[in-house]
């Protein structure tokens, strides 16, 4: 996913320091379920990002811009391939792992379809960045091997600079563009946070990881609130990088 400035990713251990690891079969099964859910939502996110960027390339004003978006799309598909292969290596059907996330992610993209080239770029940078921050928060509680894969998939593919430079150049050429794109960025933020909150609330294994480990019962609203504060701060930094007010 294309992204920019990121918040601190949280603890490097699999659990919060004040918790005792649970090595029971039930805990192992719950951890495995969380890993599969996270990899499943990431995999579907990557394949839809590939499709979206390829579609947005049609609105590009020049051949060079088309090529830049095509390169971004290729990177997303490579990430999808990594995730699909990892799921298969776990003995999981990738399509089944992705299935619970098809409707919510498709709904998000329907509600945030860009109307032009610049909106598509802002969505690729800001919208995908918000989603990546959320998934990274979850991954911060995974075992090192799974966390490393997630970090690789969520890493900037080197295209963030292209988006920032292009949007800033468009604003310099026509300052009126800034107001429209700022509103678009705020809309993306609202839609992305709503989606992340739904995922966290509806997927028990993922929400358990978010509150610091699978031994923690219930849904810790205070910890979830702190997480969304960190995501909001990272969004503000991305908007500033684009030259837009958040």
Any overview of this molecule?
With 246 residues, the protein is mostly helical. It has one domain: Ferritin, core subunit, four-helix bundle (Ferritin), CATH 1.20.1260. It contains 10 helices and no strands. Helix 5 (117-139) runs antiparallel to helix 7 and helix 5 (117-139) runs parallel beside helix 8. Mean pLDDT is 82; it is low at 4-21 and 214-219.
What is the fold's blueprint, element by element?
Blueprint: H1 25-56, H2 63-89, H3 94-98, H4 102-111, H5 117-139, H6 144-154, H7 160-173, H8 176-202, H9 204-210, H10 221-242
Helix pairs in contact: 1-2, 1-5, 1-9, 2-6, 4-8, 5-6, 5-7, 5-8, 5-10, 8-9, 8-10
Provide the descriptors you would attach to this structure in a database record.
single chain, 246 residues, mainly alpha, Ferritin, 10 helices, 0% strand
Unreliable runs, pLDDT <50, ≥5 residues?
4-21, 214-219
- CATH architecture, by name, is Up-down Bundle
Reported for the largest beta sheet, the result is:
none
Query: Helix content range of the residues, please?
Result: over 70%
DSSP strand tally: 0
Strand content: under 5%
The class by helix and strand makeup works out as: mainly alpha
Determine and state the CATH class.
Mainly Alpha
Rg, alpha carbons = 18 Å
Number of domains: 1
User: What general form does the structure show?
Assistant: globular
Q: Average pLDDT value?
A: 82
Summed up, the helix count is: 10
Report the end-to-end length measured between terminal Cα atoms. 21 Å
Q: What is the CATH superfamily classification? A: Ferritin, core subunit, four-helix bundle
CATH topology: Ferritin
Order of helices and strands: HHHHHHHHHH
């Amino acid at each position: 996913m294309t992204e920019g400035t990121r918040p601190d990713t949280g603890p490097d251990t699999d659990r919060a320091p004040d918790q005792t690891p649970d090595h029971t079969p039930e805990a192992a099964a719950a951890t495995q379920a969380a890993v599969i859910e996270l990899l499943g939502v990431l995999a579907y996110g990557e394949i839809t990002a590939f499709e979206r960027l390829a579609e947005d390339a049609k609105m590009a004003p020049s051949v060079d811009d088309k090529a830049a978006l095509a390169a971004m799309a290729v990177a997303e598909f490579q990430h999808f391939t990594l995730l699909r292969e990892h799921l298969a290596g776990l003995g999981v059907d990738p399509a089944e792992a992705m299935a619970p996330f098809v409707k919510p992610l498709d709904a998000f993209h329907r509600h945030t379809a860009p109307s032009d080239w610049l909106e598509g770029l802002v969505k690729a940078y800001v919208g995908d960045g918000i989603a990546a921050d959320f998934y990274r928060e979850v991954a911060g509680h995974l075992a090192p091997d799974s966390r490393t894969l997630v970090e690789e998939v969520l890493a900037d593919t080197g295209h963030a600079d292209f988006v920032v430079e292009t949007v800033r150049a468009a604003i310099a050429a026509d300052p009126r563009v800034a107001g429209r794109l700022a509103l678009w960025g705020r809309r993306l933020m609202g839609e992305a946070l709503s989606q992340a909150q739904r995922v966290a609330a509806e997927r028990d294994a993922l929400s358990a990881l978010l509150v610091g480990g699978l031994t923690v019962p219930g849904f810790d609203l205070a910890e979830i609130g702190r997480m969304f504060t960190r995501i909001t701060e990272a969004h503000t930094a991305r908007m500033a990088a684009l030259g837009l007010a958040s």
